[in-house]
Amino acid sequence: YPLRRQRQMCIRDSYKGTAKNGQVFTPDHITSFMYKLLNIDAKKDRVLDAACGSGAFLTKAMSYMIKEVGGPNTLEAENIMSSQLYGIEIDKRIFSLACANMLIHKDGKTNLEQMDSTSEEAAEWIKSKNITKVLMNPPYEKKYHPEIIIKNVLDNIEPHSQACLLYTSPS
Question: Tens digits of per-residue pLDDT, 111-128?
């Protein structure tokens, strides 16, 4: 019992964490849960994270999608890596981390952009990718305009797309 309680406290505390620059990195069990909520079709869906941080949602989606199409040595897996996963990150250092993370996970072509997700440039980029699913944990702090990020994404994805967002109203 004491060990179980310590584990729960550790998980709770590590998830809560301290938001530096409005960024909260999403734990693995949450990325898995949110991926499963969206019922992503690995052969056709195009996935976006417009506040991708280190790329946790994208690497999780890639892992599940590749498994669902029969593994990394299939043509479908190649297509997933080259044209079904997209990310945007505003912070240069974190963007570099996301790129490295995607490459470490062997994505073949990193479809990540370092830009402001609230911008018209991001809106046009998102629209050009024909996104059908969104997995995202936007920054929580008001000064980073999370509502504008969310609106920019939802206004520029394909009609009838689905989004799963981890978001709390700023206090």
Answer: 999 999 999 999 999 999
Instruction: Answer yes or no: are the C-beta atoms of 51 and 149 closer than 8 Å.
Output: yes
Residue 162, helix vs strand vs coil: strand
Q: How far apart are CA 108 and CA 105, in angstroms?
A: 9
Paired sense of beta strands 133-136 and 112-114, if any: unpaired
Smallest CA-to-CA distance from 86 within 145, 126, 140, 33 is with 126
The tens digit of pLDDT for each residue in 21-77 reads 555 678 889 999 999 999 999 999 999 999 999 999 999 999 999 999 999 999 999
- Token readout for 37 is 């909520």
All residues at 6 or more sequence positions from 120 whose CB lies less than 8 Å from its CB, including other chains:
none
The dihedral formed by the CA atoms of 81, 87, 91 and 92, expressed in degrees to the nearest 10:
30
Number of neighbouring beta carbons within 10 Å of residue 48: 29
Residue 29: both structure tokens together: 């069990």
Question: Which helix H or strand E contains 76, and what residues bound it?
Answer: helix 75-83
Q: Which residues pair with 85 in a beta bridge?
A: 47
Residues 6+ apart with CB under 8 A from 4: none
Bridge partners (DSSP) of residue 162 are: 133
Are the C-beta atoms of 49 and 35 separated by less than 8 Å?
no
Reading the block at residue 106, the tokens are 């062997």
